[in-house]
Amino acid sequence: MIQLKTMVNCIDNSGAAVVECIKVLRKKGPARIGDRIVVVVQKQRNFGPESGTNSGIANKVRRGDIRHAVVVRARKEIQRRDGSVIKFDDNACVLINKSGDPIGTRLNGIVGAELRNKHWSKILSLAPLHL
Amino acid sequence: MVKSFFWASSARHSTTAAASMAVSLPMVRPLGYLKAMTPRLVPPQICWRRHLSTIYSQKPERVPLPANLPKEFYSQLPERLRPDNEPRKIDVIPPPPSACSVCKDPVATVTASQLAILDPTGERKALFDYRRNPRSVKAGDILRVTFKSGDPFSGVCLGIRLRGIDTSFLLRNQLTRVGVEMWIKVFSPNVGSVEIVQRTEKRKRRARLYYMRKPEHDMGSVENIVQNYLRQKSALTGQPISKSRGR
User: Fold this and answer.
1) Which residue of A has its CA nearest to B170?
2) B 203-222 residues inside an 8 A Cβ radius of A
3) Can you tell me which family this protein belongs to (chain A) (predicted)?
4) Residues 102-121 of chain B whose Cβ lies under 8 A from any Cβ of chain A
5) pLDDT digit string (tens) for B193-244?
6) Domain B118-237, what fold?
7) Is residue A81 within 8 Å of residue A116, measured between CB atoms?
């Protein structure tokens, strides 16, 4: 249940660590796994002391940036069609650009399999594990 | 005298006459309509005096219908007074047979029929019937579920809901250091197999181990335990470990 002001973990290597939801797109009510949201980057991930200049990993987003994101894990339990219910311990998202492609190149963490039904196959292929 | 079948029309006249007789003699109505012949006997001002109020008179008695009234006179009577008038026959439709008589306990019947399809041997039911079967799965056991699609899921059993055909159990694990919980239906056709990897050492004194979500009680990942179990199992059965990530 991700809505306005929810702080969500960002699990890709785009450079954001914690983002805040400011809008749930194409939906009334809170966002769940697979929903698109608009976020503000609140905390950056720092890749070592000398990041951004010589190393190849550069923060693609900065604190205060407004980006789109897809929810990949949610603390709110979600029921599958077969009756099983799945629940994660945190809220997590992946930043995407306007056309729907992920900004980062790697994901670290499990994602929900509901992304398949919502046609986020690019994110699913990046994820190490999906359930 | 005019005779009516219903009301003695003359009765009212006679009573009024009787009442007025006590007051004044000239109000007496002459018998046999003599009045018509002698109109001047009564003073005109008394004759034409009218009152707005009606003098009380008793309800006239009903004149019964004459016995053996010929049928041809029936048409002159209102329908409800005709001797051959009977209350209308109303068709009473019997109620449909009660569903209770067909099936006393439909929920139990459906459950039994579904169990016969989904769990014909009763093995799965016994595995999770922790109230009756001492060898069943208990809260705190580590389970490994393999779905028909091939992907496994393992975790600590935090609780079992016994609800007939909807019986389910809750597994908790940590995958990529993120806690994941899953309620799985015991009799779901998607569930291929359920194995007990490790039983809890000490009987848990709670039916639902929700406290294990707290960081101080969390078991963490059970992946190592499951991998060990799979290794032992393959050594015993002589089959190689199926390619899975131990979840």
Assistant:
1) A85
2) 213
3) Belongs to the universal ribosomal protein uL14 family.
4) none
5) 999 999 999 999 999 999 999 999 999 999 999 999 999 999 998 887 765 5
6) SH3 type barrels. (2.30.30)
7) no
Contact A79, B182 (CB under 8 A): no
The mean of the pLDDT values for chain B is 83
**Residue to substitute from A75, A81, A87, interface B, most B β-carbons within 10 A:** A87
Tens of pLDDT, residue by residue over B126-161, are: 999 999 999 999 999 999 999 999 999 999 999 999
Give me the residue spans of the domains in chain A.
7-126
Q: How far is B102 from chain A (nearest CA, A)?
A: 31
Interface test with B, best of A11, A72, A84 (most B CBs within 10 A): A84
Question: What percent of the residues of chain B are helix, what percent strand, and what percent coil, each to the nearest 5?
Answer: 35, 15, 50
Least Cα distance to A32 among A67, A78, A64 occurs for: A78
Spell out the alpha helix ranges (H) of chain B. Answer: 9-23, 34-37, 44-47, 99-102, 106-118, 123-128, 223-237
Domain A7-126 has CATH 3.40.1360.10: no
**Residues above pLDDT 70, as percent of chain B:** 76
The shortest C-alpha distance from B105 to chain A (Å) reads: 24
pLDDT tops 90 at residue A25: yes
Inter-chain residue contact A87 with B180, CB threshold 8 Å = yes
> Quick check: B153 contacting A, CB < 8 Å?
yes
Cα(B47)–Cα(B112) distance, integer angstroms: 96
Best probe of the A interface among B176, B181, B187, B247, by most A CBs < 10 A, is B176
Give the least confident one: B9-13, B71-75, B101-105, B118-122.
B9-13
